[in-house]
Amino acid sequence: MQKIVANLWFDGRIQEALDFYTSLMPDSRVLKVVRYGEAGPGRDDDIMSAEFQLAGQRFVLINGNTYFKPNASFSLCIHCDDQAEIDRLWSVMTSDGGAESQCGWLTDRFGVSWQITPTRLLEMMSSDDSAAVARVTAAFMTMKKLDIAELERAFRDE
Q: What distances in angstroms separate CA 72 from CA 13, 20, 48, one per listed residue?
């Protein structure tokens, strides 16, 4: 059992979110759905909470109310192996009400913040070459969706 599980607060749209999130990557599926009963506090048979798996990582969605809203102070990071994966996730996650931000960050249609990050960027940023790290940092600070080829050129000082 996973010891720490992120709980995301939603105001309705739980089924839509489950369908969306579990379609993003392999090893993703709905694990459990709990519905309100006659005692409430939600409408009888609406989803109260749902547990799902996204790329093997467990999450819980809670059908709360409008009191709490997601914001960029908490984000989920997806490490991507190649530009095709970045492009696909970026396109899907910014569609239908999602929004681009800076430096590989976006907000999906539900208001959840994500970082779509190439694994290669993490390798470049941990280099002992401080000048290369500075160039890569300057490059990604100008980007919305991260471009691995452009980051590589900055790293190599081309």
A: 20, 20, 24
Given a contact cutoff of 8 angstroms between Cβ atoms, the answer to whether 52 and 29 are in contact is: yes
| pLDDT tens-place string over residues 124-137 | 999 999 999 999 99
The helix/strand/coil state of 105 is strand
Provide the residue ranges of all domains of the chain, joining segments of one domain with +.
1-68, 70-158
Q: Which CATH number is 1-68 given?
A: 3.30.720.100
Please give the C-alpha separations between residue 26 and each of 21, 22, 39, 146, 148, in angstroms, as whole numbers: 11, 8, 37, 22, 22
70-158 classified as CATH 3.10.180.10: yes
What pLDDT, in 10s, does the model give residues 32-87? 999 988 877 878 888 999 999 999 999 999 998 778 888 889 999 999 999 999 99
